[in-house]
Specification:
Blueprint (H helix, E strand, L loop, with lengths): L2 H4 L19 E3 L5 E3 H10 L18 E2 L1 H13 L17 H10 L6 H14 L1 H9 L2 H10 L25 H12 L4 H8 L4 H12 L3 H16 L3 H5 L3 H13 L3 H14 L5 H7 L2 H11 L5 H13 L3 H9 L3 H7 L6 H17 L3 H9 L2 H11 L4 H12 L12 H4 L5
Antiparallel strand pairs: 1-2, 1-3
Catalytic activity: S-ubiquitinyl-[E2 ubiquitin-conjugating enzyme]-L-cysteine + [acceptor protein]-L-lysine = [E2 ubiquitin-conjugating enzyme]-L-cysteine + N(6)-ubiquitinyl-[acceptor protein]-L-lysine
Protein name: U-box domain-containing protein
Organism: Lactuca sativa (Garden lettuce)
Length: 424
């Protein structure tokens, strides 16, 4: 800036208290404080704050009222100082209102307009976090879930909820369901909104399971996994315990198909969260998750996150006898778990040693112990003792070696003190 530009003094009330820049689109909160729209929306929706940044008052009303008078003053000031290099801000586009969203939802109940309205709603939702919250506030999530639970229904005269499995034509998933799933995911619903999706009967989870199972659109299947992950993160214990075995089978297929990196991570996180509840470990094992996890670890190109999550889930599953049996049944089970030690991260190494500890402690028969020696598992555990001195991972490795030191005493990699701890 030239010297003449540096001398320009910006009125303090033109400056946003958050960004400390001149406001392009000033809006006023219920507390009476004015902020730039972009800055306050980021404060409220991206950072999840519920207070006024200046007054610290809790906001019961998140309505942002445009301050047209201040905006015109700022624009006039910019125009006057134009010769000094000050650029005039354009008049901001009027944001979508809740009444407009409501009208759009109402219009979409007409079969001829439904797809067009859903596409428009998706555009609105993707525009801003403010639009997401406004769309949620007018009850759009309930409407979208109705579409997903009742494919091919005529929404101009809603009928009682019916079983998805009884509806003809679900195999050829209509595009309105794809759009509804996409919008629900991109809404990034609040905790309350996510909880409400469960309903009383779990019908919506069943409907999402059907979408994952039969949708020809891979993107829709990925969005369903991501949506379910978010729902399960806020679910009540009874809802987690009540997860149906069929959902585990469908999620396992999603993992096996590797439809996208994002969907794979969401599916792994979903299963990690579900396994500690009730009989979910058994349900997951019976769905074939263990074998798929081993194949994932064998084929994985992700350098860190996916192997960490796969080993974490495998650790959960190996806490039950059926899970350990499935691991040992797979020809590469023990080998791939051992191979991941020191190859991925400290977290992955810790999980891998925990898996080997569970196998050695509860399933360590003669053949398993000899297989661990032949595959180099024993040598890797000895290396852990040297590198991870004093850590919990080292303690687990030491316990494994002590458990079966007599069987491995002729191995050159076993430290003498471990062998000598057994009487001859």
């Amino acid at each position: 800036m030239g010297d003449s530009q540096k001398e320009i003094e910006v009125p303090s009330f033109f400056v946003c208290p958050i960004s400390l820049d001149i406001m392009k689109d000033p809006v006023t909160l219920s507390t009476g404080i004015t902020y730039d729209r972009e800055a306050i929306e980021k404060w409220l929706y991206t950072r999840k704050n519920s207070t006024c940044p200046i007054t610290k008052q809790v906001l019961t009303d998140l309505e942002l009222t445009p301050n047209h008078t201040l905006r015109r003053l700022i624009q006039s000031w910019c125009t006057i100082n134009g010769p000094y290099g000050v650029e005039r801000f354009p008049t901001p586009r009027i944001p979508i209102s809740k009444s407009q969203i409501l009208k759009l939802l109402q219009d979409s109940k007409s079969p001829n307009l439904q797809m067009k309205c859903l596409k428009r709603l998706k555009t609105i939702v993707l525009e801003s976090d403010m639009n997401k919250r406004s769309t949620e506030a007018v009850g759009a999530a309930e409407y979208l879930s109705y579409i997903i639970c009742n494919p091919n229904c005529n929404l101009s005269s809603p009928s009682p909820a019916i079983e998805v499995s009884q509806i003809d034509g679900f195999d050829n998933l209509p595009t309105d369901i794809d759009e509804a799933v996409s919008i629900l995911y991109h809404l990034h619903l609040s905790k309350t909104g996510l909880k409400s999706l469960f309903g009383r009967t779990g019908e919506f989870v069943d409907a999402l399971t059907r979408v994952m199972e039969r949708a020809t659109n891979y993107e829709s299947r990925a969005y369903v996994v991501l949506l379910l992950k978010s729902m399960f993160e806020v679910a009540e214990p009874i809802q987690m315990i009540s997860i149906k075995p069929h959902l585990f089978k469908v999620i396992t297929q999603i993992l096996a198909n590797q439809i996208s990196q994002k969907a794979t991570k969401a599916a792994l996180k979903l299963l990690i969260g579900a396994c500690p509840w009730g009989r979910n470990r058994i349900k997951a094992v019976e769905a074939g998750v263990v074998s798929v996890l081993i194949e994932t670890l064998l084929d994985c190109t992700d350098q860190k996150r996916v192997p960490e999550m796969a080993l974490t889930l495998l650790d959960h599953l190996c806490q039950c006898a059926d899970g350990r049996a499935e691991l040992l049944k797979h020809g590469a089970g023990l080998a791939v778990v051992s191979k991941k030690i020191f190859r991925v991260s400290q977290v992955a190494s810790s999980r891998a040693v925990r898996i080997l500890h569970a196998v050695a402690k509860f399933s360590g028969n003669t053949s398993v112990v000899q297989e661990m020696l032949q595959l180099g598992v024993v040598g890797k555990l000895c290396f852990v003792l040297q590198v991870e001195c004093g850590s919990k991972t080292s303690e687990k490795a030491s316990e494994i070696l002590k458990m079966h030191a007599r069987a491995w005493k002729n191995s050159s990699c076993i430290p003498y003190e471990l062998v000598s701890s057994y009487p001859s």
